[in-house]
Design goal:
The structure is a homodimer. Chain A is built from 13 helices and 13 strands. With about 375 residues, chain A is an alpha/beta fold. The first copy, chain A, has a seven-stranded mixed beta sheet with strand order 2-10-9-8-5-3-4, with helices on both faces. Chains A, B: Its cofactor is pyridoxal 5'-phosphate. Chains A, B: Pfam families: Aminotran_5.
Chain lengths: ~375, ~375
Amino acid sequence: MSVSSFYPPQRTLMGPGPSDVHPKVLQALSRPVIGHLDPLFIGMMDEVRELLQYAFQTKNECTMAVSAPGSAGMEACFVNLVEPGDKVVVCINGVFGSRMAENVVRSGGQLVRVEDDWGQPVSPDKLEDALKAHPDAKMVAFVHAETSTGVLSDAQTLCSLAKQYDCLSIVDAVTSLGGVPLYVDDWGIDAIYSGTQKCLSCVPGISPVSFSDAAVAKIKSRKTPVQSWFLDQTLVMNYWSGNQKRSYHHTAPVNALYALHEALVQLQDEGLENAWQRHARQHQALRSGLEKLGISFIVDEGCRLPQLNAVAIPEGVDDAAVRSRLLNQYNLEIGAGLGAFAGKVWRIGLMGYAARDENTALCLRALEETLQ
Amino acid sequence: MSVSSFYPPQRTLMGPGPSDVHPKVLQALSRPVIGHLDPLFIGMMDEVRELLQYAFQTKNECTMAVSAPGSAGMEACFVNLVEPGDKVVVCINGVFGSRMAENVVRSGGQLVRVEDDWGQPVSPDKLEDALKAHPDAKMVAFVHAETSTGVLSDAQTLCSLAKQYDCLSIVDAVTSLGGVPLYVDDWGIDAIYSGTQKCLSCVPGISPVSFSDAAVAKIKSRKTPVQSWFLDQTLVMNYWSGNQKRSYHHTAPVNALYALHEALVQLQDEGLENAWQRHARQHQALRSGLEKLGISFIVDEGCRLPQLNAVAIPEGVDDAAVRSRLLNQYNLEIGAGLGAFAGKVWRIGLMGYAARDENTALCLRALEETLQ
């Protein structure tokens, strides 16, 4: 065996993530490693927290980056908040809602499922019915932007229902953060997790999370230890918190945090509202181009995600052949359908640094040529 | 608030990790992102698995990289192998043995502790006594190279005892992999985890793991689901395994895996035995220099780790002041003592790319000037 160095091609990433990474983020990624307890690194972590507070629009002290991908951020929320026997209402309208449900079960919680069809947003009415039927429910969980279907749900209404029925809310913002309006404090979100590889224009591998004071109080009053040592927020907080002596928990992924820091600096410099508008603008351009090609959206206009466009694969078109030609001829990646949508749907991402005129133009032209 | 880009200084990292990273690894880290299901990426993952098999000296099919730091690799071994009620003997001679014990408890296992003093290797006699006293034990866990104390334990003897008493073995090789001889198959290790930021000369954030056929059989015959969805090897294997259609589990940390691939290519090109010898050689040079400075090792010669030199802080020397001067004046990081050794011990790492003549020379000269 003799393996050589790996040189990836330059792709244009317009799938469901990872999406195109800002060149400055790639530069930051390869800066020299310093120790995870180096005072300069600790200072940088404080800035990451501040920048995440801005991105999440929150003042939550307990805001940080989990040292693993979004799936681990999801698990961090559930294993910390759910104690054995806790009843949790999970709204499911795609793959990631189902994954939340799986997390409730594995955390020992009692699962109440509220289901909507794939391609539909979470129904506040159904959630309210479930909350009426289960007055002992302690938490409500849902996905803000379903990556499997391209649907945006009304997080503000769902969280206010949760509050009304004395429940904490757990929100999946993996695909929404940085791409569409999201106000953690104003909407009363109690626990939220995201990923770096979507609208933050960063490499995959890290999961920003934030917990409200009420969520932290629930974690601190647990009667049983958190089942995961790695994700135990009562331990991790001692490393991330600026209020006390840092204590070693695990070795932070130093360079990945350089990258996240730079991605968040770029977001700050652009401004959140401008980033949201850029995603909306590119979505409109893509949409009008796709419609000219006779390609239609599978999601109603009112709840379409600008950053993840789920469209029907035209009748008679070979899904795999088209995606493969886009990849091999144009170095362009678009996403396949997931689960029930496999073979029926393409998911075209316009996330973060991928939401630019040149990407939209390339995608439309390459699709046109390929479908001819 | 306005945060600027972060530019870390160029440090020489001679603590307990992260250690110096090979420049080619940093270059690989910032190559263009491609999709985690891109055929070219899948091909690279296959190479990572092959290269890890070489590094671990194993033919285990179930060899892969956990998408999170070594602590998560540890947790992956315990949550997958330990079912509620399983009795696990954990040998503890430092911080990381204690962390293993914590993992057994959180996985619902019955913990049997075998303790040795900090600075001592794990005693095979004590382990055998415990195995005789607990004939129903199902697993034995220990740390090959204790990062908190700089001690090497005799993994071959400990694993053969485990086998003799019908137990699976779980081995922490975070600091040993690439730095000292380690033969997973020959020694009969059933589950092993490591980290990228020690002797592999790679950035922190990923954890190589490997499971024997017997370990995989135990995982597949579980009566209860693995409590962690993120670390559930029965799911992760479907993404890493080359024998079937890849199924999406979580988004792989693409760039971190580029870096690991390159680090393993470097190890392959140097040759494992040569890497072990390089660590041994630098250790001898550091040792003779330290002895001239009147600094003595706290670990007996027969079980010292070449890659992590735990030495007594000389009488009357201000621990924090010395480390701070080394860091600020020489850009040199050495490690503080952990737990019971805080304030009493320095840990000088010679790990991976840090095990070079120039590092040893800098460290000895800077210590000499600082202690004058």
